[in-house]
Specification:
Elements (H helix, E strand, L loop, with lengths): L1 H8 L3 H8 L14 H20 L17 H20 L3 H30 L1
Helix pairs in contact: 1-3
Amino acid sequence: MQAIAEVLEQYPLGVVEECVDVRTGIARKLEFLTVRALVEHLEARMDLHKTLAAWRPRPEVRALPPPPALPPEHRATMVERFRALLAGMRRAPDPITSLIRAHRRQAEQQLAADRAKALADMERA
């Protein structure tokens, strides 16, 4: 037992926890645990972790094409068209506000009808 503890002390805690986990560790792989088998297992796991730690994705670098050169007349017409679009959007009625107002009118009409019916029912009683 002392030898196993000394071997496990030489490795990082994460690798040791992975090794001694009964669900996924060395106990699921070996019928009889020897110090040699334990060291081999730990070394294999350390190699895997070192490889994973050293891996760095290499981003693909692509140069963007330069934007097309547009004449100043085109820019001026685009600015005017954009201003006209914004002005049209400001003048257009907001559909959400229109729906809210229609719902409020309907709710007020329903409330008035309910009140009238309740008063009529109270007068008959």
